[in-house]
Amino acid sequence: MTSSLQSGRSIPSQDVLLRLYETMATITTAESETVGAVRAGRLNAAVYPVRGLEAVCAAIGLALETTDYLVSTYRNLGDAIAKGTSVREIVAEAYGRSGGTSKGKGGPMHLADVRNGFMATTGIVGGGVPIAVGLALAAQLDAEEQVAVVTFGDGATSIGAFHEAMNMAALWDLPVVFVCQNNQWGEHTALAEYAANPVLAERARSYGMKAVQVDGFDPIATVHTVQSAVDHARSGAGPVFVEALTYRLGPHSAASDAGYMPKDQFDAALRRDPTPSFRRWLAEHGEVDESELDRIDAAVKQVVADAMEFAVNSPPPERDELYLDVFADPTAIPSRSAVWRRNAR
Ligand SMILES: Cc1ncc(C[n+]2csc(CCOP(=O)(O)OP(=O)(O)O)c2C)c(N)n1
Ligand SMILES: [Mg+2]
Predict the structure, then answer these.
(1) Separation of CA 123 and ligand 1 centre (Å)
(2) In testing the pocket of ligand 1, which one of 110, 151, 187 has its CB within 8 Å of the most ligand atoms?
(3) CA separation (Å) from 26 to 81, 127, 191, 208?
């Protein structure tokens, strides 16, 4: 990676650099294993690759406390790892196994881990935005110093609920950070083909909130930007919109192809692939010893291999589990057939 990586910002401490690299490497490795399992037919689940988003996810993880809230999308592997959910539980959930975050009953598109403040993920594009605003409102009403962060794609900024939520957050100075993962694509449609104004941060500015763009392939710039956005929201100064400029380094979903993406554009983005580029930069600039990076890579490989094994060996949920965690008291809700039988008497 070039010197543009620093973007004129101060270089974080070695501890922060190492944590940043470790999280990014964990995301890249876990992604490669799970997507590989889908393609090999071993994992039958809706898995959405996060390649290209590693720095953005890791920066959010660094900026948040466990008690802070994070709401994500179907493209959630990196966010979940960065927020502190174990790779074991994430992969087991993808396999629909009892060792998963929701005992295998949610699946990868509905990953949630409330103990770690990873509150919800949804397959409804833009659906997480009002949920995060609600969490931020709760934090404000309770006078808690919590911040809610929500991640979503570029396409989500064209959804009505996004605009309703943005307006409310700005009006009430809610402690929420909107992180737009602008990967330049909404499924098979390029940003330039659906957005009259491709600067998505300007959509947020129109609601009177602070809005910034950052190179999401530059981990250090992203760490600085996300951290100051979280600090701003936590101080009570209102919401911030961060448009992280990235590129989708793969197909929309693990089961689809990427043939419609212009090859030159894709190759140019791949040359800036965040995790290997950051590794090279760390070693070349002497910020971290290469042997330390090797040690991290080996540990990460081990964590992911262990998670894959754990998931495959974890049993599916028992039948009795089906109605647990769904309603507060399943017996209080009559089934359709019970109501029909009663009415037929
Ligand atoms: C409300 C809604 N509309 C359409 C879809 C179908 N859909 C699934 S993913 C997707 C693309 C969204 O693009 P973007 O917000 O940029 O996120 P990305 O997938 O690029 O991360 C679409 C249109 C959906 N899931 N929900
Ligand atoms: Mg997108």
Answers:
(1) 8
(2) 187
(3) 8, 27, 29, 37
For residue 288, what pLDDT is reported? Answer: 87
pLDDT at 8 over 70: no
pLDDT in tens, 113-130: 999 999 999 999 999 999
Q: Where are the beta strands (DSSP E) in the chain?
A: 69-73, 118-122, 148-153, 176-182, 185-186, 189-190, 210-215, 240-245
Report the sign of the C-alpha dihedral through residues 252, 254, 257, 263, in that order: positive
- Taking CA atoms only, the protein residue closest to ligand 1 atom 2 is 125
| Domain range for 292 | 3-344
Whether pLDDT at 241 is above 70: yes
Q: Is the pLDDT of residue 340 over 90?
A: no
Residue 17 is encoded by which pair of tokens?
Answer: 């650099």
162 has a pLDDT exceeding 90 = yes
185 Cβ closer than 6 Å to some ligand 1 atom: yes
157-to-126, 176, 182, 268 alpha-carbon distances in Å: 7, 16, 10, 25
Residue type (1 letter), 102: S
Count of positions (residues) in the chain: 345
- The pairing of strands 69-73 and 118-122 is parallel
Residue 111 CB-half CA count within 13 A:
35
**What does the alpha-carbon distance between residue 20 and residue 279 come to, in Å, rounded to a whole number?**
10
Which of the 8 DSSP states describes residue 325? Answer: T
Give the CATH number for residue 103.
Answer: 3.40.50.970
Query: Which ligand ends up closest to the CA of 53?
Result: 1
Question: Ligand 1 within 6 A of 49 CB?
Answer: no
Over 50: is that where the pLDDT of 1 sits? no
* Residue 155 Cβ < 6 Å to ligand 1: yes
What band does 237 get if pLDDT is binned at 50, 70 and 90? Answer: very high
Q: How many domains does the chain have?
A: 1
From 288, 225, 312, select the one nearest 25 (Cα to Cα).
Answer: 288
d(CA 65, CA 69): 8
pTM of the model: 0.93
User: Residue 152 corresponds to which tokens in the numbers above?
Assistant: 């979503």
